[in-house]
Amino acid sequence: MTTAFYLEHYLDSLEHLPTELRRNFNLMRDLDTRAQLLMKDIDKLADEYLKNMKKEATEQKNEKLTRIQNLFNKAKEYGDDKVQLAIQTYELVDKHIRRLDSDLMRFEAEIQDKAISSNRAQEESGATKKGRKKLKEKEKRKKGTASSEDEAKGARKKQKKGSSIVSAAVAGAAGSGSQGESSTLSHPADVLDMPVDPNEPTYCVCNQVSYGEMIGCDNPDCGIEWFHFACVGLTTKPKGKWFCPKCTQDRKKK
């Protein structure tokens, strides 16, 4: 797999990332604007309540307090939605970072494998050339020391033997070279996936990292705080306050 393929494949996966990030940031800005407007209304109602506290009847006071409390609950919902969008945005970017790291590791492994294969081929080629030179030098020395008649006969025999030896040596070298090449080519590159960060915090009853849609328990003393929708049987965010199964049982016992 070439560098261009890795790059092209990764850029294709990033095609929709800017649009998704822009959408999430626009939603968070809109939620923040709504929350600020609610806080201004709460401040006005609180000032009016304090000014007319002694003049108004109890029913009117209770009505204003209820209205202020409802506005606070609405502002809290906006804040929870902002947190969920921030978590989704983080996970979206983190997914692409992990994929890039994984592709880099695969590419480096392929480069190392090709370098090892090239070095082995060069070593085998050098060993074959040295073997041929030694055989030729040995034949020349034997021809120089033989007699005239014996030299012709011995030369023919030695030449035949030498040619057979050379052929065997070349065939053996070629065979070992082809075997080494096939074993190198058949050696696969190790493919490593990006491990999950062990320092990343975990949530929910499943004790897993944050993903997808999550909801926070409204009990300030809850030991877990955040839960995945699927783990607590939710498909949409409920209205008003929500308590996790454990906190719900504790409240019933009280």
TrEMBL record:
GO-annotated molecular function: zinc ion binding
GO cellular component: a single term: nucleus
Chain positions recorded as Zn(2+) 2 binding sites: 217, 222, 244, 247
Source species, domain of life: Eukaryota
CDD domains in alphabetical order: ING_ING4_5, PHD_ING4_5
Subcellular location(s) per record: Nucleus
Residues annotated as binding Zn(2+) 1: 204, 206, 228, 231
Keyword Transmembrane helix assigned: no
Stretches assigned to coiled coil: 28-74
A Pfam family assignment: ING
GO biological process, alphabetically ordered: chromatin organization; regulation of DNA-templated transcription
Annotated Low complexity bias: 162-173
The PHD-type domain, residue ranges: 201-250
Annotated spans, Disordered: 117-192
Positions of the record's site feature: Histone H3K4me3 binding: 203, 214, 218, 226
Function: Component of an histone acetyltransferase complex.
PANTHER family for this protein: INHIBITOR OF GROWTH PROTEIN, INHIBITOR OF GROWTH PROTEIN 5
The family this protein is said to belong to: Belongs to the ING family.
Domain statement: The PHD-type zinc finger mediates the binding to H3K4me3.
Subunit structure and binding partners: Component of an histone acetyltransferase complex. Interacts with H3K4me3 and to a lesser extent with H3K4me2.
Protein name as it appears in the record: Inhibitor of growth protein
